[in-house]
Amino acid sequence: MSKPRPTSRRTNADAKTQPPDLAKQLRIVLAAALFAGAVTAVLVGWEHLFPTPPERLVKIYRTHGCRCAFNLADSLKSEGFVVRLYEHDTLEHVRGTLRTPANLRGCHVGEFLGYFLEGHVAPAAVRKLAQREPVALGLATERSVDTESGYVAIERDENSRVMLVEQDGRVRLWFEPPSDPKE
């Protein structure tokens, strides 16, 4: 005669209905949390782990209504610069830090290697600034410099001459775009 089976043994049908092991679930959740934490740490610290070389980084500070800063950013990016855009209610603090002269007031200002960039400065002029590193405050498009009225007529193209603003506030020609052969 055969012995009856003990009731504590599980059958295949019973195993499918039993809840998974709690320890196994905790290990899976912990592994997922650690992975997510590691990915987050890399993303947050990316700039510290892999910093952008300063001669490629341009920061553009804009006010809320300024849309033309995007054109400048796109122009610089297309020439190999890394652009960071920041939006502020006012640019007074940024311009004060960069020592931008009071007669240069547009809806955005750029910062490159500690210099200010006013107007839509041509990428070639910015590159020249990196190569020569003059003792100066920054660059401004010629048409953005209007000492009479204090008004800045920002050029939306990069066909304006670029002026270097020296430490003492004097302005001199820095960059002249190549003449268009079509004209």
Average pLDDT rating: 81
Encode the helix/strand succession as letters: HHHEHEHEEHEEE
Strand content: 15-25%
Number of domains: 2
CATH architectural arrangement of the largest domain: 3-Layer(aba) Sandwich
The radius of gyration over CA amounts to 30 Å
- What is the tally of beta strands? 7
How much helix is in the residues? 25-40%
CATH class designation of the largest domain: Alpha Beta
Overview of this structure, please?
By secondary structure, the protein is α/β, with parallel strands linked by helices. The protein folds into two domains: 12-47; 53-175, Glutaredoxin. Helix content is 33%, strand content 21%. The chain has helices at 12-17, 22-44, 46-49, 68-78, 92-98, 123-132; strands at residues 57-63, 82-88, 108-112, 115-118, 136-141, 162-166, 171-175. The longest helix has 23 residues, at 22-44. Mean pLDDT is 81; it is low at 145-156.
Give a topology summary.
Elements (H helix, E strand, L loop, with lengths): L11 H6 L4 H23 L1 H4 L7 E7 L4 H11 L3 E7 L3 H7 L9 E5 L2 E4 L4 H10 L3 E6 L20 E5 L4 E5 L8
Parallel strand pairs: 1-2, 4-5
Antiparallel strand pairs: 1-3, 3-4, 5-6, 6-7
